């Protein structure tokens, strides 16, 4: 029975979400017959998810853009009226416009990208152009998770590291629904459960992964910090912390200046030892040695520091960092946390004990010898098998950074960092705290016709690293790296449109958006932001003069473009998942991967990478042209092979098969046949580290030197965990007017001083602080379903049958109190706006929370769905209720700040407070029952494929 | 006699729908296809899927279980959908127990779908014939495929390996063992249909902590000199007993 005649099987990498599984695409007569998981791929090991299996319907979607389009001169922006133009015309328009900007004021060009995974290239383009105004979506995604943990343990979850479920005995998932990440986590959780592990999920909602947890612990949104601090409290109180780990591998024993009068208050005490050359974080801090009862340099042979107590050195009061932590959590009792989180104190205690006792009593010993950074040899690697995973549920709150610091500290006091059964890093992490990349710190870094003098995004270590002018005002359009959001390491894409529209800090000329739906689900306050996008000044000019959107699909955003550049799908292009960007490394070593086209581009689609290389060559951006100004790279594949970070560095986008004949790895000269070698090897390069380099990497001499030799990190020094964050303290110091570094403008001093606490603390999310909680008693959050990646898949005929419209899930009891029956139409209202939607009773959500699936609701006609499609009539968008700005907390000020974490600028999506009440209509009571607000339906653009009304898809027989 | 079947482990199924769309993707371009989609980009899209996942909430807050429940034709050993078919289009194979529909003989009368107590049959409104899960009969006997590939599409796709495939009449098979050892059960056995597909129930792991496990001799607080002691002011027997 072999009727099927699959003619070709090509391997590439999936991109139906950001997980990047290896896939095999089976083609029949040039059409996609089947997509399955590649069994040889380290990430997904042959499995595939619902999205990945629906790639066919993305490839042949009617939402696809196939021609460059220009807004009709007669049409208003946003009306979606376009005329096709040639690529030559499109490039000519861009070359002229961008050329002028670059020659005058490069910051008037802003490039912001969505979930694109080519930030190494887009970032290079922006930097070479000379604009500081570049970022990807991280600021509205999970920058708190990245920054909170990287500033604490030198690594974070997902691409950077994760729970070692292979060896864990207890797994605590907090604030994760089903994304981040997808297949690898599904594989790992199911194996973990089969092996008899215990899985606890802490989440306001029980869906997805939480469904199969052994215990679901409902929690109020935004209160995770209170829970974690109370757990830390209990673990310390019962002596369940891993003392040996804290002493040797963290700064817990380091002495902090506790003399409030001293200029050095809050800073570590240091010896006078001269700094070694090229030292990033010199080991010159002090312990109070228990045995000799005097201060010694940390890690002195034979010394053992006091973790608790108070001492005096030359008249200065000092305390170990751990003592300060203990003082900090003193009042964070389970009883206190119960009132904040809604979790019974007894449950908090029990969970703390489960964590502490499992970590202590179920130790793993692997017979792997290794040497630590202080030269001490260890015969084994020890693991305390308690693993955590957390994501946007913690991150997307304005208290997220400090919450995530608390999580990092909990993981550390349990002794689980880069150890078997705990948290494990993925190369290029661990990196120094903070990593070495910096933005410029002065507006002069932006000069006509010059590349930006520094990175557009970096990791500030103290106030002098901020990207501000003399007066302390931001240089970036999103106000990233300014005193408002000092550690905004991923930028604040969510404030770009509002800031550019208002001209605060300045006006820009051209906004280029790649793959981000900033007029809909990727923006807060969508109704107003849409108005800003086509608002005009007194001269009748658009306040944002020119908007370019590059995307493969028609969306709410493309409607606001002046110029649309049609991108290809993932099956039609080359791509790299690079170590320079966000690779797909495994715990055991670095992994990078590629996409290789399996189909020709549809119509005139052009990969955005090619667009950037063409533009860069035309604009003669130095990295893309020879000294004579001639184009250096034929195309993107050529660029990937031949580009080196510096001439002769041997470091390029791909780490595999380098060197002339492909004989080298990680570093080596360009290999002209690199793509072919990836193609032959399942499109993936996996370098397995020697076992002795696979654990304890923050302090593993062998690993650190390997990492340095391969130019993954600059330094080979141990990366001590920051239980106490001196980095944060430096900002607080500056805010107090102390120290030598820059000082914040007066109106921000209080804010910086408050939030830059060197130890984690709990505060109500900022929005809650400016909300009448009696009027808006409920928290409203979203989750991303497993079968849809944000807004990407409503155009997908199969996936939209799984989620054609979303409803608002309300705890049954809460609904009844509000007179709401299952299926009623209701209004959800925040202080910023209101939305009409369908309510659904649920027992799987805590009573103070309402929630819905993210980004299912669409604007009528968007994504080339019929104007009466369920997505726009029954489904809704919660973003209309969320403000992108908050009134500043200063009394008597009309200043606004971003609705974001005050440390990192992370968009505080999940802070919104709402109330719900019944709408007049009943479901099915007639055609009028539909969601609100509504927008004028969008029409299909020229060149878009037909929207079929019946589809019998059969590969090889469709055309 | 062989009876092929799926065993679905509800203990690990996360409701991701991989099995749903991978099944559709495989089968729409195969001998059982196409699997039509009506109104694919319009109001109320509906299409043919051989496998669907439903989600239920069980219990009351906070003791709620969320159960994801994948369901396709259960390849009953006593399939009521077979005898009701007037043309013989609906049949059960002797050699492996797979229940199939011969589209050429099907007249679209829908008797079988009324007879099926599980709602597993899918009427193709366009072609006007009855369709349903074939256990990927076109894969599992295809000798051009590797052993790993000769499994139903849904089984291969499932990221949690929640779907096992094999012969439930062979006591040594992986599926028989899973049913035996993990309390595998049939859906609505009272109907007498003897569904071949089985489900494995949720299983919970708990940690039991004993009081005396909390404090140990090597408690680090002993080193850090802070082992919790009752406050001086707390009442003691010493204060009140005088014998
Ligand atoms: S998880 Fe699914 S959508 Fe994401 S990359 Fe993997 S197969 Fe593709
Ligand atoms: S693919 Fe597996 S985990 Fe996903 S819904 Fe199907 S059975 Fe469940
Ligand atoms: S599940 Fe329904 S369709 Fe399948 S064999 Fe049983 S009765 Fe027939």
- Summing up helix and strand content along with how strands pair, one would put the structural category of chain A as alpha/beta
Q: How large, in whole angstroms, is the Cα Rg of chain B?
A: 27 Å
Low-confidence stretches of chain B: none
Helix content of chain A: 10-25%
Please mark out the parts of chain A with pLDDT under 50 across 5 or more consecutive residues, or reply none. Answer: none
Tally of individual helices of chain B? 8
One letter per element, helices H and strands E, the order of chain B comes to EHEEEEEEHEEHHEHEHHH
Write out the strand line-up for the largest beta sheet of chain A, numbering strands in chain order. Answer: 5-4-25-24-23-6-7
Distance between the termini of chain A: 26 Å
Number of helices of chain A: 25
Count the E strands of chain A: 37
Please describe what this structure looks like.
- The complex is a heterodimer of chains A (959) and B (243).
- Chain A is of the alpha/beta class and 959 residues long.
- Helix content of chain A is 23%, strand content 16%.
- In chain A, helix 5 links the parallel strand 9 and strand 10.
- Chain A is globular and about 80 Å long.
- By secondary structure, chain B is α+β, with helices and mostly antiparallel strands.
- In chain B, a hairpin with a 7-residue loop joins strand 2 and strand 3.
- Strand 37 of chain A pairs antiparallel with strand 2 of chain B, so a sheet runs across the interface.
- Bound molecules: iron/sulfur cluster (SF4) (3 copies).
- The site of one iron/sulfur cluster (SF4) has 13 residues of chain A, from loops.
